[in-house]
Design a protein that fits this description.
It is found in: Cell membrane. The protein is α/β, with parallel strands linked by helices and 306 residues long. It contains twelve helices and ten strands. The protein binds adenosine-5'-triphosphate.
Length: 306
C-alpha cells in the first residue's frame, strides 16, 4: 500500500503547493527534482569535504530488475582531477551522473565522497557540494541575469557579470538591448543550445561547488561555439573534482582519465594518448568522429566556394 500511497501523497503535496500560489518555478523544480524514494537516514550527517575524492566501488544499478544497466563499475576521481566518461548511446553514462547526485541509490556496491557513503549523508549537503551542468538547461521565465544569479542567490550584479564573462556568454548578453534584464525562457528570448549551456556554466561558476558534473550536449556545435564552451569549461573545472559525460574530442583530450563504458562495464580506461595506442573501441570511436568532422568541413568549404 505504501507504494501507491507515497507517490499519491507526493502529487497531493505538489498540488497543494501550487494551490497555495507557490508560483516560484524554481521551487517547483526543487520539488520535482526529488525522488520521493530517496530519503535521508535518521542519523544522516552533512557531507564533510576535504578533497573531494569520488569513488565508485563495484557499483551495480538497474531501473527495472530485468534489465541491469551498470554491472560492476569501479573508478576514482582524485581531488581536483577530471574523469571523462564516453561510450555508445544507452551505455549508462548519464545514469552514473544521476547516481552521483543521488537521484537514485545504487543497487549494489557503493559510491563515496571523501570516504562517506552517499546514503549516509544528507541530500541537501550533497547537492550543495555538486554543480550540475546538464545537457539541456531549463531556463526560468525571468531575466537572463536572474537565471545566472540563481547559482548563488544574493550575488551582486557585478559578480553575475564576472561569471558571465568567464563563461564566455558576457559579450552576447551585453549586446542585447536590455542586456541582463532581457526576459528569457518560454515567454522570452529563445537561446540556442550552446548559449543555454554557457548560461548554466555561468550559474555554476557563481555556485562554486567543489564537485562538478557535466553532461555535454550531443548536438553538433560550430567550431567557434565549441571553442567558447571549452574555454568556459576549463575555467569552471579548474581545480574541481569533475566528472564529464563527454561527446566532444576537445573535452576528452584534456581529461586526466577516460572511461569507456560499454554494456554496463568499463571496457577501457586511460588517457587519450594511451587509449589511442591501445587501438580498441576508443580509437575506433574517435577516428569515426574525426571522419565525420572532416566530411562536414569539406561540405562547408564546397558550399562556401562561389
Ligand atoms: P546517451 O549517450 O544516449 O545519453 P547514456 O549512456 O547516457 O546514453 P543512460 O541515459 O544512462 O545512457 O541510460 C542507460 C539505459 O537506461 C538506457 O537504455 C535507458 O533507456 C535506460 N534508462 C534511463 N533512464 C531510465 C528510467 N528512468 N527508467 C528506466 N530506464 C531508464
Amino acid at each position: 500500500l505504501m507504494q501507491i500511497y507515497r507517490p499519491l501523497n507526493f502529487i497531493g503535496f505538489v498540488y497543494r503547493e501550487l494551490r497555495q500560489g507557490l508560483t516560484d518555478i524554481e521551487e517547483m523544480f526543487k520539488l520535482l527534482d526529488q525522488n520521493p524514494e530517496i530519503e535521508d537516514k535518521p542519523d544522516a550527517q552533512p557531507l564533510a569535504i576535504t578533497g573531494p575524492v569520488i569513488r565508485f566501488d563495484n557499483v551495480t544499478f538497474h531501473y527495472d530488475e530485468e534489465r541491469p544497466i551498470l554491472k560492476g563499475v569501479s573508478f576514482e576521481v582524485p581531488a581536483g582531477k577530471t574523469v571523462a566518461i564516453v561510450g555508445p548511446t544507452g551505455a549508462g553514462k548519464s545514469t552514473i551522473s544521476r547516481l552521483l547526485y543521488r537521484f537514485y541509490d545504487v543497487t549494489g556496491g557503493s559510491i563515496t565522497i571523501d570516504g562517506q557513503d552517499l546514503r549516509d549523508v544528507t541530500q541537501s549537503s550533497l547537492r550543495s557540494a555538486i554543480g550540475m551542468v546538464p545537457q539541456d538547461t531549463v531556463l526560468f521565465n525571468d531575466t537572463i541575469g536572474y537565471n545566472i544569479q540563481y547559482g548563488r542567490p544574493g550575488a551582486s550584479d557585478e559578480e553575475v557579470r564576472a561569471a558571465a564573462a568567464m563563461a564566455q556568454v558576457g559579450p552576447f548578453i551585453e549586446a542585447l538591448p536590455r542586456a541582463y534584464d532581457t526576459p528569457v525562457g518560454e515567454r522570452g528570448l529563445k537561446l540556442s543550445g550552446g548559449e543555454k549551456q554557457r548560461v548554466a556554466i555561468a550559474r555554476t561558476i557563481l555556485k562554486a561547488p567543489s564537485i562538478l558534473i557535466l553532461d555535454e550536449a550531443t548536438s553538433a556545435l560550430d567550431t567557434k561555439t565549441e571553442r567558447d564552451i571549452q574555454s568556459a569549461l576549463d575555467v569552471v573545472s579548474k581545480n574541481r573534482t569533475t566528472v564529464v559525460i563527454a561527446h566532444r574530442l576537445s573535452t576528452v583530450v584534456n581529461a586526466d582519465e577516460i572511461l569507456v563504458l560499454r554494456d554496463g562495464v568499463v571496457a577501457e580506461r586511460g588517457n587519450h594518448v594511451a587509449l589511442l595506442a591501445h587501438d580498441g573501441l576508443y580509437a575506433q570511436m574517435w577516428s569515426r568522429q574525426r571522419e565525420a568532422t572532416e566530411a562536414e568541413e569539406k561540405l562547408l568549404e564546397t558550399a562556401n566556394d562561389p
